[in-house]
Structure of ABC transporter permease:
Amino acid sequence: MKSSQPSPPRLFLSFFRWFCHPRMLDYIEGDLLEVYDRNLKILGKRKADWRFIKDVLLLFRPGIIRPRKPYESLNTYGMYKSYFKIGWRTLLRNKEYSLINTAGLALSITCCFLIFALVSYHGNFDNFHPNGERIYRIVTEQHRETISYTNSVPSPLGNVFREEHTFGEKVARMYHETDVLISVEKNGEKNLYKEPKGFAFTESSFFDIFNFPLVKGNKETALTEPNTAIITESLAKKYFGDEDPIGQEISYNNTIPFKITGVLKDLPINTDIKPEIFVSYSTFKDFNPWMASDNAWGGITGGMYCFTLLRPGVNPIEVEEALAPYVKKYRPESKNVHHYKLQPLEEIHFDERYGGEISKADIWTLSAIGFFLLITACVNFINLATAQALKRSKEVGVRKVLGSYRSQLFWQFIFETGIITCISVAIAFLAAYLLVPLVNSFYQTQIPVNLWLDKNVLLFGFGLTVIITLLAGFYPAMILTGFKPVMALKGKITQLQLGGFNTRRSLIITQFAISQVLIIGMIVVMQQMRFARQADLGFQKESIVMVYLGGDSLNQQKTLKTELMRLPGVETISMCYTAPASSSNWGNSIRFENDAEEVNFRTNMKLADADYLETFDLELIAGRNIFPSDTVREMVVNEALLQKLGFLDYEDALGKMVYANGGNMTGPIVGVVKNFHDQSFHNEISAALITSASHMYSSYAIKLNGTAALATIKDIEQMWNEHNPDQLFEYFFLDEEIAGFYEAEDRMLKGIQVFSFLAIFIGCLGLYGLVSFMVNQKTKEIGIRKVLGGGTSQIIWIFGKEFMRLVGIAFLIAAPIGWYIMRNWLQDFEYKINLDPSIFIITIGSSLIIVAVSVGYQVLKAAYLNPVISLKSE
């Protein structure tokens, strides 16, 4: 049948050809096509197609045609064994080809396994609660100059919500405190434990909302009495060994005792509920009387949570509308506008605005990276396989002449791909297993080791094997089995028959464009981090050690400060709430002079003694420092506060009254300090206020003289322990805490570095495949050029100009994309670097060096090859 003539439905024709026995195919197919031609002339195209489909289906009735038998398809042990032997010998004969493909696939599959483990870990958080779809956390949107988000609410809100509305089937408040000191007396000896996950004052209804079962005790009554506690099995073993923990006693910070009334089954790793000690909420008044009161609407303290299990059918939007009037009703004097929102349990882990560990965008990004690495590895496999096609064309021709069917050759090449894939998956599985501790450390996760025995991971590995085998093997197999025997044996296979050269170029350009985008990102993040760490913060951060205050009374704390000042390695000491830059800030609203209302911006309260300015080298630019005092008497403010108030001459602000903390902290402005960065470079410099309030101090800020710092810290520890025998000595260097502001950026930088390396490595494999193809194509041309007097440099330039062009095109694509992405990333910083041309010069330069290293060996080998050998290649 001529190609211009209409043809029958290809799908049914192809299925018939596959199903029918080869010896019967020619006879039956001829009759089918003859009938189709006749029907086409009489009935027309559409009816002829339907009649053809009907005829094909009728042939599949038993006894009409003889189907392929098992030994003629791929289902017998002998056939598999033959395919395996041939494939294995082929791979051993082409060791370089096999090694490169295995390395590329193993690397990308390792990343896929690790990314799958990460996505599985994060995707399963808090999915074990029976009524999870009805569990919500009440959170707060705070509207001032800008909108900020907090996962906490005022402490009375939960009780009011429970009493005034019927939306919640259960409502529970919880106040979570981290890094607490727990003391346990055992055999007359007091043991001290620092619990980083902390403990939580919790209402008993909490355990009706969440599925955290008790192994000992009754969850209904365990926390009803004051000074009672529930601890996890691990802590029970840690504190009391094999003894029964029920009835035993623990103490918080040596002040509040709790009797153990229940033992909780260890919390799963996939939950955002972190505390391992839950204590009765009725004891909260002993911890913080103001916050435990029903009138504590004046502030939102981090760690104060409210959870609710909504009744079936309740609409969360309806609940939010009912919560809207709370601010005006219970805090009418507040100028701030708060919106209380319901956050579904399933979003708690993924909403970074409210402290979620990871965003869904990050999950999708990780998945996309894994998919990209997998696809690029398959592309490189295809490039290398088609580059090898010329070497195997005669093999295909011989096997076809000897009677091999195309389907047999096709499955042979697929089987070869399968061998490489299986080896790669095995290597990747082992590598991923060994790398899990590194991933856990890097991403601060707890991926369990036994995850690799999980059926989902095993199914994922099996699915990857099948998909990669078909994805990477199909195209090369179709190309290789499509050679005509005569053309293959004569060595006249054309470039078009080996797959489009321009297609391979396009893939290489895409790979290098992505690599260059990653390189641009890496350079920008590195420069921004260097800028953040080396910039002048407006205060002294080096050689400052922050030590927990300790002591039960102000006199004890002052006595220790005096004794520490006598140490030779100590320059100055200040007792304070926090350092100038800290992750724990106390935001407060102020009222200025005779204004009737509070200002519309928040003030960062820095509570400290009179040595604060000297210890941190804060520069006083107007007025004087505060006088020594234990209570609020005077205030020093920064430039930002006066600028927000509209002062042009800072001297005019001296003596003006400031009313902070609802009027409980009052004093005149006596001094102005130069602006200092109180948070990370993500945020603008806050309006700050420094005043004395000894009851709020939590740390000693100790400036060391820089010599023998470790020895001085040991002396500080010894002296501190003498004054605080019932406490644990804790300290940290201020510059380390400030570096922690950029922990997410550091993690991002390391991630970009890793993925840049992987993308570049896989891109280099693609280049290797392309240069292999080019060398095979130009072997005879190189020989002729050398015979005619062409120099080595000219031969190298034949290849060099090709790759320079590819890198240049990739850069033209990558540069605007990289500029756009990193410009948007820098928008999150108030203080940032400029995207100058040097970033892009470094990118293109490094890309050219990478290309030169990747293809240099193959190009030089081709350039120095004896022309006699080149001309004999055909």
Residues 66-76 have pLDDT under 50 and may be disordered.
